[in-house]
Write a structure and sequence with these properties.
alpha/beta, Aldehyde Dehydrogenase, Chain A, domain 2, 15 helices, binds nicotinamide-adenine-dinucleotide
Length: 481
C-alpha cells in the first residue's frame, strides 16, 4: 500500500493518524488512494497558522497574489487531462465532463488573478465641511471552506481563488468522497508559492473537521456549498459564537424547465436531457421538473425517450460513455427510494430507473423519466440529486410559470420557447437566481454571479466580481482635511 495523501497545515504536509480509501464509483475494486482523515486538532493547528500568516498576507501587494493565482491557473491548464481523469475516477462524471470541470477551475483562477488588481474603493465628499470620506474593502481574515462532492475542483476553485485574491487565509475542508481532486489542487496552490499558513487543507468528516470550522472562534467567515439540511446547521453554528461569522450558503435545487407548445422540439429535447441527466443528474442546477404544455407534451416525451435510449451509461473513463455512475451507494439508495416513491405516488415511470450491470461493479443507474407527475408529489418537490426527472403536464404558459415557481427552492429556472413575449415574461417572473432561455438549467459562465433564492442560497453571490461581496469587508474612513 502506498502512503496516504496528507493534509497541508502550517506550510507542511502532515502525516495522518487515520486514513480512508477513496473508491472509484465506476469500479469498486479500484482504490484511487488512501487519504488523511483529519480531526479537530488539525483544524486548530491550521487556524493558528492562518492567524499568524494573515497580517503579512493581507498586506501583500495585489500583484504578488496575482502572480500566485496565475501560476495556479497555468498548472491546472497544463495538467487538465490528467486532473480530469482523476476527477472522473473519484466522482464518476464522464472524462469529457471531468476535463471540462478542471478547465473551468483554471479559468476561475485566471479570472481572479486579474481581479486582484481591480479591487477599487470610493472617495466621496462628506456632508460635513472639510471632511473627506473613503470607502475601501479589506480582507475578512480566516475563511473556512466546506464543499460538496459533485464539483470536486470547480467549487473549491471558486471559493479559494477569490479568497486568496482579496488577501484572506484559508482552511479548506473538501467533501469526504472526493479528496483526490482537492489534494491535487492543494499541491498546485502550494507549488505556486503561497506562504506557509495562508492556505491549509484539512480533509475529514463534516461532523468533526467541518464542525470545528464552525465552532472555532478565530475563523471569521464560512463559505459552504452542500445540502439544505447541512446548510441550516452550518448557519446556526456559525452565528452561535461570541463573534458571529459571516456566512455564505449555496444549497440544493428543484430546478424547473418549462417547455411550451411553440418550442423548437430538438432544442427542447437536448436542453431537457442535458439539464436533467448529464453529470448523472448530480448537479445543484439539474432540471428535475420538466413542465410541459399540452400541445407538445406527447411529442416531447416520445422524443426525450428516444434520445435517452441513445445514451450509454457506463464507466466514466470509457470512451463513448454519456452518463457515468452514481457517486456512491447511499446516493444510489436515495435515487432508488425516490423512484419507488414516484411510482407509489401514481406517476408513470416512462423510461429507465433500473440498476445496471457493467463490466466492472459500480453504481450504475439508467436515467429515470417520470411522466404524469403532479406538482404536489414528493418527486416534484424534494431534491433527489440523481438521474431522475419528472414531467408535469400543464395547460398553458400561465400554469407553467405558476408551477415552476411553486417550490421552496430558487436556484435555476429554464424555458424552451420561440416566443419573445413568453421568454421575456419568464425572465422577469421566474423566482430563481438564474434563468435560462433555450439553454439547460445547468451550465453557467464563471465571470458572472452564481447563486439562487429562497431555500437554495443564503448570503452574497459567488463567482465573478460579485465574489468580493463575500470575501471582503467594507470600511468607511472619515478625515478632517
Ligand atoms: P452535504 O450537505 O452532505 O455535505 C456538504 C459538505 O458539508 C461536506 O463537505 C460535508 O462533509 C460537510 N458537512 C456535513 N455535515 C457537517 C456539519 N455538521 N458541519 C460542517 N460541515 C458538515 O452535501 P453533499 O451531499 O456533499 O452535496 C450535495 C448537495 O450539495 C446537494 O444538495 C446539492 O444541490 C448541493 N450543491 C449546491 C450547489 C450550489 O452552488 N447551490 C453546488 C453543488 C452542490
Amino acid at each position: 500500500m502506498t502512503a496516504p495523501f496528507r493534509n497541508f497545515i502550517a506550510g507542511e504536509w502532515v502525516a495522518p493518524t487515520e486514513a480512508v480509501p477513496n473508491v472509484n464509483p465506476s469500479n469498486l475494486t479500484d482504490v484511487v488512494g488512501e487519504y488523511a482523515r483529519g480531526g479537530a486538532a488539525d483544524v486548530d493547528a491550521a487556524v493558528a497558522a492562518a492567524k499568524a500568516a494573515f497580517p503579512a498576507w493581507s498586506r501583500t501587494v495585489p500583484y504578488a497574489r496575482h502572480e500566485i493565482l496565475k501560476k495556479v491557473a497555468a498548472e491546472i491548464f497544463a495538467r487538465k487531462d490528467e486532473l480530469g481523469r482523476l476527477l472522473s475516477r473519484e466522482e464518476g462524471k464522464t472524462l469529457a465532463e471531468g476535463i471540462g470541470e478542471v478547465t473551468r477551475a483554471g479559468q476561475i483562477f485566471e479570472f481572479f488573478a486579474a481581479e486582484t488588481v481591480r479591487l477599487a474603493g470610493e472617495t466621496l465628499p462628506s456632508v460635513r465641511p472639510g471632511v473627506g470620506v473613503e470607502v475601501t474593502r479589506e480582507p475578512l481574515g480566516i475563511v473556512g471552506m466546506i464543499t460538496p462532492w459533485n464539483f470536486p475542483i470547480a467549487i473549491p476553485a471558486w471559493k479559494i481563488a477569490p479568497a486568496l485574491a482579496y488577501g484572506n487565509c484559508i482552511v479548506f475542508k473538501p467533501a469526504e468522497l472526493v479528496p483526490g481532486s482537492a489534494h491535487a489542487l492543494a499541491e498546485i496552490i502550494v507549488r505556486a508559492g503561497v506562504p506557509a499558513g495562508v492556505f491549509n487543507l484539512v480533509m475529514g468528516k463534516g461532523s468533526t473537521v467541518g464542525q470545528r470550522l464552525l465552532d472555532h472562534p478565530d475563523i471569521t467567515a464560512i463559505t459552504f456549498t452542500g445540502s439544505v439540511s447541512t446548510g441550516r446547521k452550518v448557519a446556526a453554528a456559525a452565528i452561535s459564537g461570541e463573534v458571529m461569522k459571516k456566512v455564505q450558503l449555496e444549497m440544493g435545487g428543484k430546478n424547473p424547465l418549462v417547455v411550451l407548445d411553440d418550442a423548437d422540439l430538438p432544442i427542447a429535447v437536448e436542453t431537457a436531457v442535458n439539464g436533467a441527466f448529464f453529470s448523472t443528474g448530480q448537479r445543484c442546477t439539474a432540471s428535475s421538473r420538466i413542465i410541459v404544455t399540452e400541445g407538445i407534451h406527447d411529442r416531447f416525451v416520445d422524443a426525450v425517450k428516444g434520445r435517452l435510449a441513445q445514451l450509454t451509461v457506463d464507466d466514466a473513463l470509457k470512451a463513448g460513455t454519456h452518463i457515468g455512475p452514481v457517486v456512491d451507494e447511499s446516493q444510489l439508495d436515495q435515487d432508488m427510494r425516490y423512484i419507488e416513491i414516484g411510482r407509489a405516488e401514481g406517476a408513470t415511470l416512462a423510461y429507465g430507473g433500473e440498476r445496471l450491470n457493467r463490466e466492472s461493479e459500480g453504481f450504475y443507474l439508467s436515467p429515470a423519466l417520470f411522466t404524469e407527475a403532479t406538482p404536489e408529489m414528493r418527486i416534484s418537490r424534494e431534491e433527489i440529486f440523481g438521474p431522475v426527472a419528472a414531467v408535469i403536464r400543464v395547460k398553458d404558459y400561465e400554469e407553467a410559470l405558476a408551477v415552476s415557481n411553486d417550490t421552496p427552492f430558487g436556484l435555476s429556472s429554464g424555458i424552451c420557447t420561440t416566443s419573445l413575449k413568453h421568454a421575456t415574461h419568464f425572465k422577469r417572473n421566474a423566482d430563481a437566481g438564474m434563468v435560462m432561455v433555450n439553454l439547460p438549467t445547468a451550465g453557467v459562465d464563471f465571470h458572472v454571479p452564481f447563486g439562487g433564492r429562497k431555500g437554495s442560497s443564503y448570503g452574497p453571490r459567488e463567482q465573478g466580481s460579485y465574489a468580493r461581496e463575500f470575501f471582503t469587508q467594507v470600511k468607511t474612513a472619515y478625515t478632517l482635511a
